[in-house]
Specification:
mainly alpha; elongated; Cytochrome Bc1 Complex, Chain D, domain 2; binds heme C
């Protein structure tokens, strides 16, 4: 009986560790994706000052601006990443990423953007 308890306890610890490392890697993956695909416009720090901005007629959103970012729902942010700026009546200079990322990866990016702005919808 004692042996069984130890095995059950070990299994619990193992599954917790697994869940923890999966969550951590999803967040890391979103940060990686952001740095690879978004930073050239939105900036490495997400402040809207990427290397492309000098020549852009519409400036990319500063994702650290909590006032602007809290004005958007998660659904809108999801939509603009997936379908591009035009999906929410914004500039075509924000490209659509639906063919590049899975829905799950886009959700990861939405979560990452909420970390950058330290905000949520309405606050
Ligand atoms: C080629 C430059 C470019 C790249 C690359 C780019 N964006 Fe954008 N993005 C823009 C521009 C420009 C806007 C602002 C559009 C406007 O204000 O009309 C924008 C706007 C946005 C918005 C809307 C914010 C708001 O409320 O107005 C989100 C969200 C966003 N980008 C996320 C991303 C993510 C995530 C990536 C990477 C997967 C990315 N962008 C890559 C140029 C870019």
């Amino acid at each position: 009986m004692k042996v069984l308890k130890v095995i059950v306890a070990e299994l619990c610890v193992a599954s917790l560790l697994l869940a923890w490392s999966m969550a951590a890697s999803a967040a890391e993956k979103a940060a990686d994706n952001y740095h690879t695909y978004c930073a050239q416009c939105h900036g490495v720090k997400g402040n809207g000052k990427g290397v492309n901005v000098r020549d852009m007629s519409v400036q990319p959103r500063n994702h650290t601006d909590s006032k602007e970012m809290s004005a958007r729902s998660d659904d809108d942010i999801y939509k603009v990443i997936k379908e591009g700026g035009v999906a929410i009546n914004k500039s075509v200079l924000m490209p659509p990423w639906g063919d590049v990322f899975s829905d799950e990866e886009i959700h990861g990016l939405v979560t990452y953007l909420r970390e950058l702005c330290q905000c949520s919808y309405g606050k």
